[in-house]
Prior knowledge:
The structure is a single chain. The chain has 47 residues and is α+β, with helices and mostly antiparallel strands. The chain has one domain. 23% of the residues lie in helices and 28% in strands. It has one helix and two strands, in the order E-E-H. It has one helix at 34-44, and strands spanning 8-13, 19-25. A two-stranded antiparallel ribbon has the order 1-2. Strand 1 (8-13) and strand 2 form a beta hairpin. The model has no long low-confidence stretch (mean pLDDT 87).
Amino acid sequence: MADRYAKRAYFILDRNGVVRYARIQANPLDLLKAEDVLQALKDSGAS
């Protein structure tokens, strides 16, 4: 039954619309920490 619920996803796109980071959480209640999102942004070079 878990397939009936949406999954939480995080995406970082650069200015040209290219996906530089994508993460899909299996459990929609699992949130990434703000620090993890900011680090992914820095690592992606999309800022």
